Amino acid sequence: MKRYGKVIKIKPEKLDYYKKLHAEPWPEVIKAINECNVRNFSIYFRDGYLYSYYEYIGNNYDADMRKMSEMTKEWLKETNPCQVPVETAKKGEWWAEMEEVFHTD
Amino acid sequence: MKRYGKVIKIKPEKLDYYKKLHAEPWPEVIKAINECNVRNFSIYFRDGYLYSYYEYIGNNYDADMRKMSEMTKEWLKETNPCQVPVETAKKGEWWAEMEEVFHTD
Question: Alpha-carbon distance B38 to A105, whole Å?
Fold first, then answer.
C-alpha cells in the first residue's frame, strides 16, 4: 500500500459548489475510486486550498489513475473548473504531490 | 474512529532539522502516539507548510491529546520552535484544523 498526500487551490467563488458536490458524491465516482484501488480517501479544505489523502492498494498506479480519470470524466467536468494548480506545480500536474516527512501506523 | 487533518507553517531554516527528526522519530514519541489512541498518522510537507492526517480511535480526545503532549514534552521542545501557526489559526491553536469536505473508505 502506498499513501498519497496532494494539494490544489480552490477558486473562492466555487467553494460552495465544490463542497456541495462532495457532500453527495455521485455513485459512479465512489465506484470508480473503489475499482481503481484507492482507499481511505479524504479531502480537506482550509484557507483557499484543498488537501487530499488516500491509500493506493493496487499494483499499477498509472494505469489505475488513467482508468479513474476516464470513469469520472463527467464528474471532473464539474470539479476541475473549481480548482487551480498551486504555483509550484510541475508542468501538467493538477493536484500537486506533497512530500511525506513522517508516518506511523 | 474520527479523522483529523491539520496544517501549520514550517520555518524554512528549520525544515531540514524537522525532517531529520521525523525520519528517525524517538521511540517514546511513537509509544505516546500509540498509547494516546492515534493511528495511521502522516505528516506531509509542501511549499512552506506541514499537513498532518491521523485517525483517533479512543473515546476521550481532549484527555488523550493532553496525555500525548505530556508524554512528548521533550520532543515538542525540538519541534515546536520549527513551526508557526497559520495566520488564520484560532487564538491558542497550534496545528490548525482543516475542514473535511469528502471521505470515502
Answer: 9
The whole-number average pLDDT for the span A41-57 is 98
Cell numbers at B48, concatenated: 512552506
Q: Which helix (H) or strand (E) holds A7?
A: strand A2-10
Question: Do B18 and A101 lie within an 8 Å CB cutoff?
Answer: yes
What pLDDT does residue A1 have?
96
DSSP three-state, residue B4? strand
Rounded to whole angstroms, the Cα distance separating A56 from A59 reads: 8
Looking at residue A67, the DSSP 8-state letter turns out to be: H
Q: Do B51 and A5 touch (CB under 8 A)?
A: yes
Which CA distances in Å does B28 have to A2, A77, B92? Answer: 25, 48, 26
